[in-house]
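Handoff note, outgoing to incoming analyst
You'll be picking up this chain. Sequence as last confirmed:
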Amino acid sequence: MAYLCPVCGIEFIPFTNGKPKIYHSDNCRDFAKFKSALERSILKLEPTSAASSLIRGDMFRLANLLSNGTNFSRTKKQIGEL
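Most recent structure output, in case you need it:
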């Protein structure tokens, strides 16, 4: 029986010795772990208005990695295929 990774959406078979896998890869597991840690840290912060703007900017840049980083990877693969 195949499962879908909750992070990347890739289908995988969770065969292991012991506890079944939840994530498709170590990178997906790390993402989930670090995202939870970041959320806890942000909730504990009491930033000024200026610091909040900087944090929002950092989060925006991270979000852009999904589209810009993915496009860059696809471009590198396409260039390699030429």
